[in-house]
Amino acid sequence: MSKQVILVTGASSGFGLMTARSLAQTGHTVYASMRETKGRNAQQVAAVAAWAAEQTVDLRTVELDVQSDASAEAGIAAILRDAGRLDVIVHNAGHMMFGPAEAFTPDQFIQQYDVNVLGAQRVNRAALPHLRGQGKGLLVWVGSSSTRGGTPPFLAPYFAAKAAMDALAVSYSTELALWGIETTIMVPGAFTKGTNHFAHSGSPSDTARVAEYETGPYAGIADKALRGLAAQEPADADPAEVAREIVRVVDTPFGKRPFRVHVDPSQDGAEIVNGVADRMRREMYRNIGLESLLAPAVIG
Q1: How far apart are CA 237 and CA 47, in angstroms?
Q2: Chain centroid offset of residue 245 CA
């Protein structure tokens, strides 16, 4: 294994922090990005530094708000000044909202897309010139089984944004292959415990319409959906398995990394549907004479 310089976005907690720690423990130089490092996340920055010192690993924090072009540019520039290179980006930053789709305002939908989709685009635009210049790199996109698996009600803004992110990752994969940049899409299932994903989910702004759903024919459906998701999850489901799978992908030799990895203890069907969709995509590229874009080019 060669030591690599890795950025993990949205790494103040959850999958991001687990992944950053696991990668650092494997011997890589890891930048855990988060916003407001001198404000609300100052304590988390100190905690990360203390943990890294205790574990004697190279885990650092960097200020990077994926909702800001300037912050993404500054964060990438800081990493390049500090480490001299960047090899891997883990697009993990994201946020969830729960409630009836009708009760979310358009601005709330925009916010979901801004964090889950445009955030990755901002980081890419800041970092890809460097990765393309060095002729080698890896993008790991932390998606969701909800894009193609079972989709319970009341998570529409999140599901729609994650589906858009998945589509963006798929398109980027072939547009970057000839630059020597690999793509892996990590597909976690609905881990209802062990992260703050559900606990910190947003709510609809239009509370009057929420009330209409809660007192009408959909009364009790939201709670039933959440209980049902939790019941589908095996008792031993461990969200840290997502981090371990990302480490495995990063440590796999160039050219051998999988395009998509599912970590779904509930087995909601996403792996089956993605398998068909990814096969059809490969066949289409072969049919139009662009099969060379399905694997990263070796440059230099």
Answers
A1: 26
A2: 13
Q: 35 in helix, strand or coil? A: coil
Bridging pattern class, strands 5-8 and 59-63: unpaired
Handedness of CA 231, 161, 96, 239 (dihedral sign): positive
- pLDDT (0 to 100) of residue 1: 56
CB 230 within 8 A of CB 193: yes
Quote the radius of gyration of the chain (alpha carbons, Å): 19
Total count of residues recorded for the chain: 300
Tally DSSP H helices, then E strands, for the chain.
Answer: 10, 7
**Is the separation of the CB atoms in 124 and 172 below 8 Å?**
yes
Q: From the first residue on, what is the mean pLDDT of each consecutive set of 10 residues in the chain (300 residues)?
A: 92 94 98 95 96 98 98 98 98 93 97 96 98 97 88 91 97 98 93 62 94 96 88 79 97 96 88 95 98 93
Q: How far is the CA of 89 from the CAs of 126, 137, 242, 274, in angstroms?
A: 11, 8, 15, 23
> How far from chain centre, in Å, is Cα 29?
19
Tokens describing residue 280: 């059809």
| Strands ordered across the beta sheet of 137-142 | 59-63, 29-34, 5-8, 88-91, 137-142, 181-188, 260-263
Q: Is 159 helix (H, G, I), strand (E, B) or coil?
A: helix
CA dihedral 132, 140, 154, 104 (to 10 degrees): -30
And the tokens for 282?
Answer: 């490969």
- Give catalytic residue positions: 158
Alpha carbon dihedral 230, 236, 242, 244, in 10-degree steps, equals 170
